[in-house]
Amino acid sequence: MRTLAAAAALAVALIPGTALAAPVNPGADNADLIAISAGDDGALSVHLRDAAGAVREPAGLVLGPGGGLATTVPDDPHYAFLGAPGRAVWSLSAGGSRFPAMDTTGVRDGGAISLRLDSVDGPGGFAAYTVSPWGAPTVLLDSDGPAATTLKPGGRVQNVAWTFDTSGVYRLGFTAGQDGRTTSAVYTVEVPTIGDPAGAGRSVGVPRMPAAKGLPSTTAADATAADATAGAVAANAAGTVISDGHVDMGPQLDGGVWRIRLKDDATNPPAWRELSDVVLKVTDKARIAVPAGGGYAFLGAAGSQVHLLPQTQQAGIVWPGWNTQHSSVTSALRGDVTWSLKGVDGPGAFALFLTSSFGTPQVLFDSTRPMPQKLAIPLNTHAHGNWAFTRPGLYRLSVEMSATTTAGTAVTDTRTLTVAVGDATDPAAGLAAGPSSGSPGGSPGGSPGGASGGSGALAFTGTSVLSIVAAGLALVVAGFGAIALGRRRTEALPPN
């Protein structure tokens, strides 16, 4: 396949006056790999929306071979669709907070949207799948299995993985259809060498997360989704209780003063609130059982109940993230923002973790381990993870964010994020606690962190956001692709 591509390129280059355009690789991290929209005339189109929000036509793009994650199929029956345990495979994205998505927010009405995998022209198998918070995959498209899936108009399927089992160049043909109208597109993916078991488990070409891509970047589709799902907010004289919708914790330089605030997307434009004026309410809709297996033992015994705010947005559950995207921050800082968890006061343990494209959790913070724990966050980052609380009750997380300005001044601020977990927990108790501690912008020390309560201290895992992404972590919503291993597919797939 590469020989044919090279010959075609040479033929074009020999035509007088013809410029040979290099293929564009927009990168898969945080992109909407398949974005389906309807024009004013009702016609459907399929395109790729990159992490910066730029819309690109699939023709002329080549995804890979840089980035992604080379690893082996885990010894887990849920991943048998990828092949035998230990088999080398490659995922287009390293996963975690960098997972791409599929987007239909450009189609506002009408019936269900079908997405069909028409053909896979390449040396091996391909599949797409999502991964649940507990690492269980759901297959959407598979060159050796289901060739079609159904999407809802105006929605997003997040944490999507495209996985391949053999090195080489692939051309993937897709057709999207709705109410009798269809459109098709072909994507080209170059898969690096993945057959060397010694290379399994390491990311390919991702030694450090690019600052512009950080953790999941905010795209136009994200903003649209946020506007469409305004959160449940109860405001009173004492403060604001948020139990649904999208919020982000992040720093601002406000008149030269460095402060941690909470960005609340329930309003348009979003409101930046003081942490001391907000309580996040986690209802029992977020209650879930810890799965079997040692990978999630940090949350307790299998079958025990925890409250989990998942990395992927779910209706009726508050969706907290973190970001370093405020213009006052991106324009005035150099280097990363360091997020430190200094203490946790609450009735149980708290953990923040991501899930890889192959089901393995990676813990960012864990209150059963020593404090403080630190996370390096590049500028222009927007990210979400899984926030887990092992017992109902009121939690106070002492958080610090520090950075260095372009003038070389160290700035730091420490605040308390209050979370009321469980239907029976009154969030008013969190608002009655008074303002959280904090230090003025530019002061190097900051104020003391909150007490380390019954949950103990969170461990510094020694892993920055960058290496977490390279390790490949993810969380999920709707099923996602798996690899169809073991046989070459150059023919059109049979009807579903």
Into which percentage range does the β-strand content fall?
35-45%
How many strands in all? 34
Low-pLDDT residue intervals, each spanning 5 or more residues:
1-20, 196-231, 434-496
SSE class: mainly beta
Q: What would the principal axes of the Cα set say about the shape?
A: globular
Describe the secondary structure blueprint for this structure:
Elements: H1 2-13, E1 32-38, E2 44-49, E3 55-56, E4 62-63, E5 69-72, E6 88-91, E7 101-106, E8 113-121, E9 126-131, E10 137-142, E11 148-151, E12 156-157, E13 163-164, E14 168-178, E15 181-191, E16 202-203, H2 220-228, E17 233-236, E18 239-242, E19 245-254, E20 257-264, E21 271-274, E22 278-282, E23 287-289, E24 305-309, E25 318-323, H3 327-330, E26 333-345, E27 350-355, E28 361-366, E29 373-377, E30 382-384, E31 386-389, E32 393-405, E33 410-421, H4 428-431, H5 465-471, E34 480-481
Parallel strand pairs: 1-7, 4-15, 18-22, 19-25, 22-33
Antiparallel strand pairs: 1-2, 2-3, 5-6, 5-16, 6-13, 7-12, 8-11, 8-14, 9-10, 9-13, 9-34, 14-15, 17-18, 19-20, 20-21, 23-24, 24-31, 25-30, 26-29, 26-32, 27-28, 27-31, 32-33
Describe this entry's structure for a reader.
By secondary structure, this protein is mainly beta. The chain folds into two domains: 27-203, no CATH class; 230-471, no CATH class. It has helices at residues 2-13, 220-228, 327-330, 428-431, 465-471; strands at residues 32-38, 44-49, 55-56, 62-63, 69-72, 88-91, 101-106, 113-121, 126-131, 137-142, 148-151, 156-157, 163-164, 168-178, 181-191, 202-203, 233-236, 239-242, 245-254, 257-264, 271-274, 278-282, 287-289, 305-309, 318-323, 333-345, 350-355, 361-366, 373-377, 382-384, 386-389, 393-405, 410-421, 480-481. Mean pLDDT is 77; it is low at 1-20, 196-231 and 434-496.
